[in-house]
Amino acid sequence: MSNPLPKRIIKETARLVSDPVPGITAVPNEENLRHFQVEIQGPSESPYAGGLFKLELYLPEDYPMEPPKVRFLTKIYHPNIDRLGRICLDVLKNNWSPALQIRTILLSIQALLASPNPHDPLANDVAKEWLDNESAALQKAKECTEKYAK
Amino acid sequence: MSKVPRSFRLLEELEKGEKGGSQACSYGLADGDDITMTNWNGTILGAPNCVHANRIYFVSITCGPNYPDEPPHIKFVSKINLDCVDQTTGDVKPEALHILQNWKRSHTMEDILLELRKEMITPNNKKLPQPAEGSTF
Amino acid sequence: MGNVPGRLEEGSNGSVRSRTRSNSNLSISSSNDTLNSRSRRNSNQYSAANTTNTYSNNGIINSNNNNKNNTNKNNTNNNTNNPGTSSHSKSLGSRRHSHTAASPIATTYNASSVGRQRRAGSLVGSLLASTQHAFGGGAGSSPTTPSSMTMTMSSASSNGATPTRSRASSIFSSSAFFDNPYRKRSTRERQKCKEEHYKGLVVRYDEVVDGGYLAPYGVHDDEHKLDYNENVVKKLIIERKLQPFYLPLDDYEPEWNDTELLKWVRSLTLHQPYSAYVEKYEDLPGIEGLSVKELENSENIEKYLDSSLSKTERKIQRSQIFTARLYKRKILWQQYETDFFLNEKLKIDSAKKSKFGEPVDGKTQSQAQSLSFRCESWVPNDKLMLDLYRNGTECPICFLYYPGPFNISRCCEQPICTECFVQIKRKDPHIPAHENNENNEIDEIDEDDDNKNNNDVNENASTNTSKRRDSSAQEEETDQNGTLISEPTSCPYCATPNFGVVYTPPPFYRRCGINSVLPGEYKGQNIVSAKSATPTSAAASATASATASAASTLATENSAIDSPCVSSTGVSDVILEEAEDGNSAFVSQIARRGSLPAHHESVVTSDAIRPDWEVKLNKARERQKKKYLKATTIHLNNRLVSATELARLEDEMLDKAIKMSLSSNGNGTAANH
């Protein structure tokens, strides 16, 4: 009934398995090979260090001409990630390019954990805290990681 | 065609709802912290040129784990007298509403709300006496 | 010659060699189909249900058509052909009509011996015949319109005037049909236009350039992204300014021997299989169980419409039915071409057998025999297939393997296949997201600008926000300045604005198809030039699977040995001679360093293949303006009628909506927008 999976998705999936990215795993759902369960380790030198964050990723019909859809399933205190796990990241929106891949997108998300950008927030309350009192915000992020990501 | 998973489908609907798709209805998450996005609130603006005109009806929508493969559960919070609404609980009877009975994966919550609005002006329903505005089930 | 399948004596004009094929007019259904006017199908020997055309041999004799004598000769030949052509064209409509009534069998046998020969031994023969009949019937059902008649005629005459270009020009549907792009078109006109576009996307087995095709294989089969101008792209491919649509291999292993490689290549069909089931077309009336003829008749849509729907809803349904039917017809059109393609392959196989004898013990013919076999056919022969697929690359975007040379991005010199290139288009007109987003208007770049652009991209990265935020910000801005914008596409690799590619055609010996030798008669290059140093051959072989940019370096390095022939466009073909074993490897690359500006004559930009972007933008602006004016008017009128009631209601709605939104989002995110 459904179209065969495009070769690109098959190859990307195989390469994610054969040549995994350190600190990141992505496993496709058996019933829907475009839907991936993702785990990202919190970068060291960040309040998320030591945490393991679950995400889900979906490759829409037009992929790679359209970006993958990604969201956090693990609760996280971060100015660019909202309470539903939605991520504000340019390469997931306007700056998507078909030359990018699942691999590069997940690396970008990992980099976003290492360097939050409170000037372009998605979670306004978190961003405000981040700007007003950064040490308190970092502490909250650590606590949140302890509580939900371990 | 690939199947959009439940969560991304609900996020799509949420974004459309936030943008304000149709002027005749609105919908949003009941609990903005609920990562499963199960419970939703909706409003329907009463159909024009009938007793419902200018009324606003509140409904609650429950999207189960199998949404959108299965239709959501709809319940009127505001009292309304329609053939497809259980008059004691406010539940919309799936067998009495075409869109729920013939559910397709491509249907959305907005489709249901608009269909309910259309129900208000079917010949059967048009003549039904309506409870006072603002009363709830 | 007599043994060559598909050859036609009748109607061929004296010394003019003729090629025949069953008229694919049938596949594209109606006589007012402008594609019908392709010159190679110009003299209709038979009527609609099974028309066989002669294809006058313009430009096929010599790959180099610039030869003046040659051109003149063709010209003469063509003129002698022309009277016949015209009369055939004229009688097309009426002849078709007469065949509408014919039964499938009668129609089939109305063909000449060649027609029968073609069908003989075909696995798909019966299917083909039935498809032909179905399409033929459809053709008869739609009477020829005056406009299409004119197009057919004009094509025939232009055939005589410019023989070397005739084939190319006649492939295109008339673009003059819609003079003013801003003119409001009727539904019928718009449907016609869409139909023509879909027809243009059908991969025709005999529209071959250098072993590739003029329409996409369907790697990204999304109708919204295939909205490029198919005539422009076909023209660019024929002019060898864009890589043809080669049939992709899923994988390629350099270790494969020729037999293995040929096995994979031979299993390719013209188009990726279509999904027969499309959810959005499900449950639409007036689709299932209809004959092709009924599907083609958009007049009968009316009777399937749901009468309980409102006028607007009916209009929507009407257009949905039309689109769903068009999808179905597109599948059938492609099926017809594919069947013909497969049929040709079978004929070639049996011709090989008769020439070399039956394969013993199931073994295929020896490689040498197979490679030397050539026949008059549009199906590429083994030699061509090897020359093509031994020199391919995986496209970095679709991950599929295509023969080279590739299109190369004008900015960062990265390869991209045409299949992916045509997908890259401007976003729909939208309101500017940020005022500081200024890199949109940059038209040209040079190497210094490259760095600047990269900085811009980085800046963008930090200033970009989610779509959701943008859209709410946009709504405010709409009311203030209200100007929609459309940004040029960016390079997928380096994000340089105004994406464009450069294509360097293969060397002359590797050219075939339109305006060159038939793909079935391809010889390639067997003479080893003394000039070619042995190390060069080795190096060239090694690059067989390397990327084109790597090849570019090689070409530059070797350009001292091979004297490049510089053409008028400043493009040089650097040909590295091949090794004797038939493993030909060549490298051809533009002699350039660094990037080229978007307006450079050899650059094909995204905008060039969607020239209507500006019209679309202006129309969107116009619509937006109207919408705004209308909204204001309604607003005012309502206030005059029942100002207080409406105001109360609006306030209440707003109030409740805000409350709901607040309760659902708490102190969080979306409430502020």
TrEMBL record, chain A:
<dbReference type="InterPro" id="IPR023313">
    <property type="entry name" value="UBQ-conjugating_AS"/>
</dbReference>
<keyword id="KW-0067">ATP-binding</keyword>
<keyword id="KW-0833">Ubl conjugation pathway</keyword>
<dbReference type="InterPro" id="IPR000608">
    <property type="entry name" value="UBC"/>
</dbReference>
<dbReference type="GO" id="GO:0005524">
    <property type="term" value="F:ATP binding"/>
</dbReference>
<keyword id="KW-0808">Transferase</keyword>
<dbReference type="Pfam" id="PF00179">
    <property type="entry name" value="UQ_con"/>
</dbReference>
<feature type="domain" description="UBC core">
    <location>
        <begin position="4"/>
        <end position="150"/>
    </location>
</feature>
<protein>
    <recommendedName>
        <fullName>E2 ubiquitin-conjugating enzyme</fullName>
        <ecNumber>2.3.2.23</ecNumber>
    </recommendedName>
</protein>
<comment type="similarity">
    <text>Belongs to the ubiquitin-conjugating enzyme family.</text>
</comment>
<feature type="active site" description="Glycyl thioester intermediate">
    <location>
        <position position="88"/>
    </location>
</feature>
<dbReference type="InterPro" id="IPR016135">
    <property type="entry name" value="UBQ-conjugating_enzyme/RWD"/>
</dbReference>
<dbReference type="GO" id="GO:0061631">
    <property type="term" value="F:ubiquitin conjugating enzyme activity"/>
</dbReference>
<keyword id="KW-0547">Nucleotide-binding</keyword>
Automatic annotation (TrEMBL), chain B:
<feature type="domain" description="UBC core">
    <location>
        <begin position="5"/>
        <end position="137"/>
    </location>
</feature>
<keyword id="KW-0833">Ubl conjugation pathway</keyword>
<dbReference type="GO" id="GO:0006301">
    <property type="term" value="P:DNA damage tolerance"/>
</dbReference>
<dbReference type="Pfam" id="PF00179">
    <property type="entry name" value="UQ_con"/>
</dbReference>
<dbReference type="InterPro" id="IPR000608">
    <property type="entry name" value="UBC"/>
</dbReference>
<protein>
    <submittedName>
        <fullName>Ubiquitin-conjugating enzyme variant MMS2</fullName>
    </submittedName>
</protein>
<dbReference type="InterPro" id="IPR016135">
    <property type="entry name" value="UBQ-conjugating_enzyme/RWD"/>
</dbReference>
From TrEMBL, chain C:
<protein>
    <submittedName>
        <fullName>Protein SIP5</fullName>
    </submittedName>
</protein>
<comment type="similarity">
    <text>Belongs to the SIP5 family.</text>
</comment>
<feature type="region of interest" description="Disordered">
    <location>
        <begin position="132"/>
        <end position="168"/>
    </location>
</feature>
<feature type="compositionally biased region" description="Polar residues">
    <location>
        <begin position="83"/>
        <end position="92"/>
    </location>
</feature>
<feature type="compositionally biased region" description="Polar residues">
    <location>
        <begin position="105"/>
        <end position="115"/>
    </location>
</feature>
<dbReference type="InterPro" id="IPR039301">
    <property type="entry name" value="Sip5/DA2"/>
</dbReference>
<feature type="compositionally biased region" description="Low complexity">
    <location>
        <begin position="141"/>
        <end position="168"/>
    </location>
</feature>
<feature type="region of interest" description="Disordered">
    <location>
        <begin position="431"/>
        <end position="486"/>
    </location>
</feature>
<feature type="compositionally biased region" description="Acidic residues">
    <location>
        <begin position="438"/>
        <end position="450"/>
    </location>
</feature>
<feature type="region of interest" description="Disordered">
    <location>
        <begin position="1"/>
        <end position="116"/>
    </location>
</feature>
<dbReference type="GO" id="GO:0005737">
    <property type="term" value="C:cytoplasm"/>
</dbReference>
<feature type="compositionally biased region" description="Low complexity">
    <location>
        <begin position="12"/>
        <end position="82"/>
    </location>
</feature>
